[in-house]
Amino acid sequence: DTGVSQDPRHKITKRGQNVTFRCDPISEHNRLYWYRQTLGQGPEFLTYFQNEAQLEKSRLLSDRFSAERPKGSFSTLEIQRTEQGDSAMYLCASSLGGTGSGGDTQYFGPGTRLTVL
Amino acid sequence: AQSVTQLDSQVPVFEEAPVELRCNYSSSVSVYLFWYVQYPNQGLQLLLKYLSGSTLVESINGFEAEFNKSQTSFHLRKPSVHISDTAEYFCAVSFLGRSGGSYIPTFGRGTSLIVHP
Predict the structure, then answer these.
(1) Which CA distances in Å does A26 have to A5, A103, B1?
(2) In sequence order, what are the residues at sequence separation of 6 or more whose Cβ sits closer than 8 angstroms to the Cβ of residue B64?
(3) Which helix (H) or strand (E) holds A90?
(4) B79 CA: distance to closest CA in chain A (Å)
């Protein structure tokens, strides 16, 4: 168990550019979550995968955001045409959970800090 | 929308004093309740959780939380804190998502516990 890893750890980009982040979950975990966290706030849910299926997306999630988990293992989060308001820490978490259950313990990665200039 | 409220953004206490970190949530239907902790320069990790059964749950390092359904609260307490407890504490509640098939974690904004010698 090597834990949840995220790459890159830091990303600085100019407004209007596209960025992509990667998350590698704990190997046997079937669930994967993406969150956004800004200063002084808790993690805000963005989207969630059960294996390769994207089951929930936040209604606050702009169409510029897209996430994939093609083979039920690693996941990518892409932000198109970045805006300054996208600057935040992007967190990934994974867990092992059964269908319809909500009590799984999430294991968080270190996050990717995005700065949009 | 479902919400989680942590009224105290910062709680300063002296070492060996008792502490309570408050958490209230908006729904009275079945939910799953968590406290996560983030130590300085580390990622979020689970402290304790309530799924069902006894309303009092304990962690291995002396924290406890009590689920109060009528008050929709899940306050975190410790009878005697240590310097090493200095950290950010996040209350999280899993609510049933819009699709009705998945539980979505919602985090509070966090409470910074600062333990002074």
Answers:
(1) 8, 17, 31
(2) B48, B56, B57, B58, B76, B77, B78
(3) strand A88-95
(4) 25
pLDDT, tens only, A13-46: 999 999 999 999 999 999 999 999 999 999 999 9
Residue in A41, A110, A111 nearest the CB of B109: A41
Q: At A83, which amino acid appears?
A: E
Report how far residue A116's alpha carbon sits from residue B18's, in angstroms, rounded to the nearest whole number.
42
CA distance A32 to A107: 9
Residue B105 C-alpha, separation from nearest chain A C-alpha, in angstroms: 7
Contact B104 A48 (CB under 8 A): yes
CA–CA distance, A40 with B109 (Å, rounded to integer)? 7
Cβ–Cβ < 8 Å for B83, B66 = no
**Rounded CA gap, A106 and A3, in Å?**
11
Q: What confidence tens digit (pLDDT) does each residue in B44-65 have?
A: 999 999 988 888 999 989 999 9
Residue type, A85: G
Q: Residue B34: list chain A partners with CB under 8 A.
A: 105
Closest-approach residue (CA) in chain B for A42: B109
